[in-house]
């Protein structure tokens, strides 16, 4: 086994390179993926924006932009799922499995490539954020921390997506499930504050890991607004909670994905 | 456990599902493939061919039995097996978004062929398979035959000692099929051991040194293509001028061939399998003519795979079309 673990880095790099080559060959897909958050930003920002009143009269678009960043990062769930399902469906996963390649290399290469592509895609999105009036108000250090959290969230969600995609094994099914994940975005505090929600719904929304990330990004970018008075611990301590959620989810989903890759289901 | 066998399996068993849905895909499969030979696993959809290949290529674990490939145990030493094998599946398992060259470079890197060594090997294989002109186009623009050739090239990157081909020509046009066959023959001539699955008697006959007839998860018969054909005998078929002559022809053909004739009213044919080596076409024609049966056409030919299965195992394959359709076994 030592001979296979020593190949993890070069194998992952080779498979990471594959994903970047795919993106270069298919730039339309990248543009489409990036158009979606821009649409969300403009749609929520200008159509709903004027009817949402925030505590303390804060600007809605400034409130919204970190939320859209987090939603975009969480899109790793869908890209990971589609990619892994497609590779499983077309037999590419099986071919990789018959190669003398480290068992963690394929999912690790894919997740890392997804983080890199997300980082590139964030550049135009940040520009649009600036154009609608959002600003980094908390200094360079905390802002870098916020971007770090976004990359981490992308990495986490990509692993989850890769596991689910391998299990689904069909691009069609992955596409359908992908559209259902829209509900996860609505059940967090990216678009609206939790203050006006009924108590039970507020609890559900606050314990959605995405809400911790959204709150942490607002804090670190210096866009924070007054939160609900009785917010859950994961909202009161959003940065620690985001890191905690990441560790927990990686501890669950990385071993599951690697195991699933190493030993596919049969029958 | 002698090392002169590239593939050796004993009593391989594999079941899928449970209860009423339990499928016994393999029920004690024994294989012994000498190094440097081409072995064909011949059988219909669902016979267990793909399941056997998945176990031998480390993609699946048997419920019982043992197997070694290139001297390494497939369960205990999968990494060593993977270093020794090349695999080409039913699907062209290449990345459709990448070019042919990018695909081969990727698989070269994953086989530790880096830099110039990998590039040279990719160029060499592109040339061998007539893909040099299309090398820098995305694979999604390739024809089915080109994709299959690229898939085979990808399986050969590492110059494997043992090459596994799962239905390498299913669904291909005759020209592409002949290209694949020629490439497989060249590989075997250079000493590569090839284990392939096929639904086509013709493919097994053309390529294999030995054929294993797989039926319901066991080896029903093993031998050279010539032995298999001799054992299967021949199939006599006559076309009559009018429908009323069908039963008269059947009455003659039955005793001549020693088997129950099959009448096709639509095509106005009567056919019967025979293992009588002494039976000749003139004898068939003479007998029918003497009985006054108006025959338009007559033939004595090798049986199709369907007919062979009927005579060797008593089972039909379930697909009596005989056409080269791109069917797949259920995903394992």
TrEMBL record, chain A:
Which Gene Ontology MF annotations are present? Answer: ABC-type transporter activity
Please list the residue ranges annotated as the ABC transmembrane type-2 domain: 28-264
Give GO BP annotations, semicolon-separated.
response to antibiotic
Query: What are the subcellular locations of this protein?
Result: Cell membrane; Membrane
The regions listed as transmembrane in this protein's record are: 28-48, 63-85, 106-132, 144-166, 173-192, 239-258
**Keywords for this protein:** Antibiotic resistance, Cell membrane, Membrane, Transmembrane, Transmembrane helix, Transport
> Main localisation, per the record?
membrane
Record GO cellular component, one term: ATP-binding cassette (ABC) transporter complex
* Membrane topology listed for this record: Multi-pass membrane protein
- The organism's superkingdom is given as Bacteria
**Matching InterPro entries:** ABC2_TM, ABC2_TM_bact-type, ABC_2_transport, Nod_factor_ABC_transporter
Which PANTHER family would you find in this protein's record?
NODULATION PROTEIN J
The family note in this entry says: Belongs to the ABC-2 integral membrane protein family.
User: What name is this protein filed under?
Assistant: Transport permease protein
Q: What does UniProt list as this organism's lineage?
A: Bacteria, Bacillati, Actinomycetota, Actinomycetes, Kitasatosporales
TrEMBL record, chain B:
Keyword Transport applies: yes
Q: Which Gene3D superfamilies does the UniProt entry name for this protein?
A: P-loop containing nucleotide triphosphate hydrolases
- InterPro entries xref list: AAA+_ATPase (IPR003593), ABC_transporter-like_ATP-bd (IPR003439), ABC_transporter-like_CS (IPR017871), ABC_transporter_ATP-binding (IPR050763), DrrA (IPR005894), P-loop_NTPase (IPR027417)
Its record classes its membrane topology as:
Peripheral membrane protein
Q: Name one GO molecular function term.
A: ABC-type xenobiotic transporter activity
Q: Which UniProt keywords apply?
A: Antibiotic resistance, ATP-binding, Cell membrane, Membrane, Nucleotide-binding, Translocase, Transport
For this protein, the record's SUPFAM superfamilies field holds: P-loop containing nucleoside triphosphate hydrolases
Query: Does the record's keyword annotation contain Cell membrane?
Result: yes
Report the locations given in the UniProt record.
Cell membrane
Annotated segments matching region Disordered: 312-332
Question: Residue ranges of the ABC transporter domain?
Answer: 7-241
A single GO cellular-component term on record: plasma membrane
**UniProt EC number:** 7.6.2.2
Q: What is any one GO biological process for this UniProt entry?
A: doxorubicin transport
**Ranges of compositional bias, category Low complexity:** 312-325
A Pfam short name: ABC_tran
Query: Which PANTHER family does this chain map to?
Result: ABC TRANSPORTER ATP-BINDING PROTEIN, DOXORUBICIN RESISTANCE ATP-BINDING PROTEIN DRRA
Family, per the entry? Belongs to the ABC transporter superfamily. Drug exporter-1 (DrugE1) (TC 3.A.1.105) family.
Protein name as catalogued: ABC-type xenobiotic transporter
Give the species. Streptomyces coryli
């Amino acid at each position: 086994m030592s001979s296979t673990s020593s190949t993890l880095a070069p194998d992952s790099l080779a498979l990471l390179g594959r994903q970047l080559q795919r993106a270069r060959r298919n730039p339309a897909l990248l543009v489409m993926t990036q158009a979606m958050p821009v649409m969300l930003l403009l749609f929520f920002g200008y159509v709903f924006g004027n009817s949402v009143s925030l505590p303390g009269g804060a600007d809605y678009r400034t409130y919204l932009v970190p939320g859209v960043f987090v939603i975009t990062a969480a899109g790793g769930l869908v890209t990971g799922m589609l990619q892994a399902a497609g590779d499983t469906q077309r037999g590419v996963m099986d071919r990789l499995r018959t190669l003398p390649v480290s068992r963690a290399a394929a999912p690790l290469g894919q997740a890392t490539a997804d983080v890199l592509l997300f980082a590139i895609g964030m550049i135009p999105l940040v520009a649009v954020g600036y154009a609608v009036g959002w600003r980094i108000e908390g200094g360079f250090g905390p802002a870098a921390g916020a971007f770090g959290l976004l990359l981490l969230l992308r990495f986490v969600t990509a692993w989850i997506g890769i596991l689910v995609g391998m299990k689904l094994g069909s691009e069609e099914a992955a596409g359908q499930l992908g559209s259902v994940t829209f509900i996860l975005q609505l059940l967090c505090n990216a678009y609206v504050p939790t203050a006006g929600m009924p108590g039970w719904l507020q609890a559900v929304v606050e314990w959605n890991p995405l809400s911790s990330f959204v709150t942490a990004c607002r804090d670190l970018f210096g866009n924070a607004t007054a939160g609900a008075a009785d917010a859950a611990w994961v909202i009161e301590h959003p940065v620690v909670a985001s890191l905690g959620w990441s560790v927990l989810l990686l501890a669950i989903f990385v071993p599951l994905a690697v195991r699933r890759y190493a030993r596919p289901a049969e029958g | 456990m002698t090392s002169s066998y590239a593939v050796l399996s004993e009593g391989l068993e594999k079941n899928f599902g449970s209860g009423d849905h339990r499928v016994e895909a393999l029920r004690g499969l024994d294989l012994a493939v000498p190094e440097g030979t081409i072995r064909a696993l011949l059988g219909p959809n669902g016979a267990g061919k793909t399941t056997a290949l998945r176990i031998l290529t480390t993609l699946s674990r048997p419920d019982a039995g043992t197997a070694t490939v290139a001297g390494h145990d497939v369960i205990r030493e999968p990494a060593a097996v993977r270093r020794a094998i090349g695999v080409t599946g039913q699907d062209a398992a290449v990345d459709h978004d990448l070019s042919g060259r990018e695909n081969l470079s990727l698989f070269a890197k994953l086989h530790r062929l880096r830099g110039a060594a990998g590039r040279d090997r990719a160029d060499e294989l592109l040339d061998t398979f007539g893909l040099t002109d299309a090398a820098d186009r995305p694979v999604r623009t390739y024809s089915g035959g080109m994709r299959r050739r690229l898939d085979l090239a990808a399986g050969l990157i590492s110059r494997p000692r043992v090459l596994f081909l799962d239905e390498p020509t299913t669904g291909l046009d005759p020209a592409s099929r002949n290209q694949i066959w020629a490439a497989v023959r060249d590989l075997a001539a250079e000493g590569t051991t090839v284990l392939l699955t096929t639904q086509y008697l013709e493919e097994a006959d053309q390529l294999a040194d030995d054929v294993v007839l797989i039926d319901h998860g066991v080896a029903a018969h093993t031998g050279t293509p010539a032995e298999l054909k001799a054992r299967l005998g021949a199939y006599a078929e006559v076309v009559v001028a009018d429908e009323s002559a069908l039963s008269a022809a059947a009455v003659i053909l039955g005793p001549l061939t020693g088997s129950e004739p099959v009448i096709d009213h639509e095509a106005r044919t009567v056919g019967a399998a025979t293992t009588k080596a002494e039976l000749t076409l003139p004898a068939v024609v003479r007998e029918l003519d003497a009985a006054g049966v108006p025959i338009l056409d007559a033939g004595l030919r090798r049986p199709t795979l369907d007919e062979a299965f009927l005579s060797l195992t008593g089972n039909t394959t379930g697909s009596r079309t005989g056409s080269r359709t791109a069917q797949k076994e259920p995903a394992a």
